[in-house]
Amino acid sequence: MEKFRIKSNYKRHILIVDDEIINREIIGNFLQSKYEITYASNGSEAIDIIENRENKFSLILLDLFMPVMDGFELLDIMNESGLVKSTPVIVMTADKSAEIKCIKLGAIDFITKPFDLPEVIIARCERIIEFFEDKNLINIAEKDSLTGLYTKDFFFEYIRQINTLSSSDPMDAIFININNFHLINELYGRKKGDLALKKIGEKLLSIANNTLGIGCRIESDNFYFYCSPQDDYADMLKEVQSAFDCCDNHHKITLRMGICKNITPDEEIEIFFDRAKSACDTIKNDFTKQIAYFNNELKETSIFNAKLIDDLDDAIANNDLIVYYQPKYGILTDTPVLKSAEALIRWNHPELGMISPGKFIPLFESNGLIQKLDQYVWEQAAKQIKAWKEKYNKTIPISVNVSRVDIYDLTLEDRLNQILIENEISTSELMLEITESAYAENAAILVSVVNKLRENGFKIEMDDFGSGYSSLNMLTSLPIDILKIDMIFIRNMMNDAKSLKMLELILDIAKFLHVPVVAEGVETKEQLTILKERGCDIIQGYYFSKPVPPEEFTPFIEAML
Ligand code: C2E
Ligand code: CA
Ligand code: CA
């Protein structure tokens, strides 16, 4: 049990409720070397004290017979408010016959009057306090077997207990992550990866000793650390980083750290660690920085994000999310022809106005809500295909964006098929755009999902090609039907010979593979001409139209009838 014990530097507080001064003094004297003591002379005074105290008492010692409000009545009130569940009560009595009634009211133990030996009473109080503190912790898996740090659940329960016991001195919440941890696993094997995590665990445990700190590993290579405020976190980072000094890896392991300072523990503690993490996320790809502090700007972003998360369901229910459509034109004919459209979401928020997807798509991708949003967009797009088909007797295929989160969802194909069935459309009419970076992230899984979708008849467009790290080489082995070149290329090709050369190369390879190419972000006639001369099949961009709501899209259809 010792391992569960909350650090002893926090002095517990005991409330002694007895109307007789002599009794209060005797028992108080026994306990005062180990505990902080507060006295009350009857039940009503005790309630005032409990209600006005910020922190919890670790134990209440209660006399039964007192004027104004007796011990039974106080127990009754504590029982009703649920207080007896979190604060143990030991009844001090000379009357054996009252015990049953007290137990029914939630008392946990008895001390008989006249009092036993001091040692017996102290031992009893100690045992009951430990028992109560352990009770909450005992059900939770305590340690992460790899690092020796606490598990997340235990970590938060532990902090909550510390906070109910000690006065609210400010503390700091810290998030630590290994840069590109997956690379260590991939290059050197999982064993090396595990060793790195273990070493961080060891370092954090030793730092915890000097900083009144406690640490946990939340998952993978993410660590939380909670400690008294430090003047210089560069020192702490250096100390953790030194875990790798001895390693003969060719790959230098580096860490990054996000800090949320001077937190007041009366609020929900998890929020502060979310903030530390969001600070850390701001330096994710910036290798010149290793430490980031949570600040006001981030606070506003996190409040804004929390609002978006809260409001998503309402937005769907109230049609505040509107699907816009941007036309794609085939340009290899003399006059451009409307080929299809891309569905792009817009959020017309009742309080915040029009919000661009750049503000909420990455957020919803990070917490999985994107699936809900994508499902909604797919349904709307399918309805739109059906509606235009009925109205114009013609299919305008629509491409929808499929987020990387959707790819890992085993029900993806069923969900898509269901939408097709409900709207009586086919797989050739609803096309799927998958961003290049999803291919690069986990090529094996993605390829198998995409292969299945293609077997089912879906057309897959690789979106944002060239924006990530994929190589031209990859193109030859990946299952795709259409290649969508990222708008960065289009922007750069005008004034950068290398970009233009690259674009020509991509177009050549695509032609060789018989894969049509879409260029997106085309804004000028000049860009269109360059692309047309080099054999690019389809163009999407402001040159033809911005994404527009369905009613503004119909003129494009009507123009080609
Ligand atoms: P994306 O899929 O690459 O979409 C193309 C983006 O380029 C759109 O931005 C579009 O409005 C913009 N665009 C098109 N032509 C031009 C142009 O000529 N010039 C410029 N400057 N921009 C142009 P948007 O609508 O803001 O969407 C941004 C991103 O948000 C999209 O990038 C896509 O990744 C994501 N997104 C939008 N709707 C959805 C959705 O329903 N589901 C998912 N998962 N992602 C979506
Ligand atoms: Ca797209
Ligand atoms: Ca794109």
Write up what this structure looks like.
- The N terminus is likely disordered.
- Strand 12 and strand 13 form a beta hairpin.
- The radius of gyration is 33 Å and the shape is elongated.
- An eight-stranded mixed beta barrel has the order 11-12-14-15-16-17-18-19, surrounded by five helices.
- Helix 9 runs antiparallel to helix 10 and helix 20 crosses helix 21.
- Helices cover 47% and strands 20% of the residues.
- It starts with 12 loop residues before the first strand and ends with a helix.
- The protein has three domains: 141 residues, 3-Layer(aba) Sandwich (Rossmann fold); 143 residues, Reverse transcriptase/Diguanylate cyclase domain (Alpha-Beta Plaits); 243 residues, TIM Barrel, CATH 3.20.20.450.
- It is of the alpha/beta class and 561 residues long.
- The protein binds ligand C2E and calcium ion (CA) (2 copies).
- The site of ligand C2E has 22 residues, from strand 12, helix 13, helix 14 and strand 16.
Secondary-structure blueprint:
Layout: E1 13-17, H1 21-31, E2 36-40, H2 43-52, E3 59-63, H3 71-81, H4 83-86, E4 89-93, H5 99-104, E5 109-112, H6 118-137, H7 152-165, E6 171-178, H8 181-188, H9 190-211, E7 214-219, E8 222-227, H10 233-241, E9 255-263, H11 269-281, E10 291-293, H12 296-317, E11 321-330, E12 337-349, E13 353-355, H13 357-367, H14 370-392, E14 398-402, H15 404-407, H16 412-423, E15 430-435, H17 436-441, H18 443-455, E16 460-465, H19 472-475, E17 482-485, H20 487-493, H21 497-512, E18 517-520, H22 525-533, E19 538-540, H23 550-558
Parallel strand pairs: 1-2, 1-3, 3-4, 4-5, 9-10, 12-14, 14-15, 15-16, 16-17, 17-18, 18-19
Antiparallel strand pairs: 6-8, 6-9, 7-8, 11-12, 11-19, 12-13
Helix pairs in contact: 8-9, 9-10, 14-16, 20-21
The protein binds ligand C2E and calcium ion (CA) (2 copies).
